[in-house]
Amino acid sequence: MHRTDLADLSIQSLELGKPLAGDAVSLVVKGHAHLRSLQDATAYVVARRTGGDGDYEINLHFDPARMDAILKLQEPANGPLENLVKVPGLGALSVIARLNGPRNAEQLQLSVDAGPLRARAHGTLDLVHSAANLDYSLTAPAMTPYAGLAWESVELNGRFHGPFTTPTADGRLLITALRVPGGQPLVWVAALECALIAAMLVLLLTLRLDSETASGTLVTTLFGVAAMGVQSAMVRLFMRDVPSTNVMTTNTTQLAVDVTLVLLSLGRQPAGEADARQDRAARERCRCYWPPMAGFVLGTAIGALCFQFVGKAALGVGLGDFGLAIRRDTGAHGAFFFADAGSGSKIGEMSTMLFRALFPGNNQEEHLVSFIVFPGSRLSPIADNPRPTLLRLLSDLSNTSNVGTMIDIMASGTRRPLKNVNKHACITIPTDARINDKKVQSLVIRGNR
């Protein structure tokens, strides 16, 4: 996150014109912000509508121990947000989201009222161990949010419990007399795409994806590719008059061209009717193309936040997790904690202390190093003190009597009850080490509880 300090934000009159907000709206905006990272952030921004109802407020404070935030959006029917999302029949809108508490027990409350529609979510989030315990619901009577989309009733209830990577989730969705633009075929095509995505998610959570060529990886990938193919076909067959929702390159190019035409038309009179038609068409396309582009940008931002809170845990290792590095030809080893993930195709850097422990001499090239990392073993707040945690985890590993228990300990980074403990069990790591001029085929780690 880029460092940002905004001591005082004050806008006495922010005008939103009819093309953007439906009806012309004037807002008074005030706020301040201090943004360093997700562990050091404070912000308060409020926008209030003048001459009518409408309040938009965000207030947050993040530190290493807690995350506290509140988001409030309230506006009457036919307000700016209703026009921005292109749902003219939505009704009065009220959104209140609260997050407060320590990072391992964040209390979440979400309330959304849109006309007669009611959506709720509440529960706890454990951002330290990447887990949640949430209940959610949605109810709506007969509604027609916009032309072609209608239903007689909607009822959704469900629960999400457990780690983000292996949750226990259940839900019930009942929609009565759903009507969508494009008719019944579009419903079945969209349902097929949802089914393929759901199948891919189930496979991701249940199969072992050990490598890029593993059978589980290939099957899961095929379901994802099939879902993409259905989406492409649905856009071509049923959504011909709307911007593409699966190829953002097309939208980006068209929007860039149309924005350029609109900017060039400012302050000049069209040379003829053809130029006037071109200007009108460019403005109309801008109005149609910016919502999917805004959704794409918003989705990218949400994806980045999800990676911060969930993605690293899904990859197996998070910042601050502890591990042991072992040079395979000499047996030299050292403890470390994970602090640099690198970027793209480049790995992160190794600390100078660990590097010197593994490579004390000048011969530092072409030597293999084995890294053992324990996901979820980090301290809260993150600290560079791996010794007590590693001693405990390695002791647990040395006392395991079966591979399954060993995998559980290495995957969780936390102590688990060990059954059928074998006091003489050990971990053997293959090496090509030479110690005191004697070749060592393996490194054995032993420990006692």
User: Which outline best applies?
Assistant: globular
Largest sheet: 11 strands, antiparallel
What is the averaged pLDDT score? 76
Order of helices and strands: EHEEEEHEEEEEEEEHHHHEEHEHHEE
Write down how many β-strands occur, each being a DSSP E stretch of 2 or more residues. Answer: 18
How would you classify the helix and strand content by structural class?
Answer: alpha+beta
Strands in their spatial order, largest beta sheet: 1-2-3-4-5-6-7-8-9-12-13
- Low-confidence runs (pLDDT<50, min 5 residues)? 413-449
Range of strand content: 25-35%
The helix fraction, in percent, is 25-40%
Distance between termini? 43 Å
Which radius of gyration do the C-alpha atoms yield?
Answer: 28 Å
The count of helical stretches stands at 9
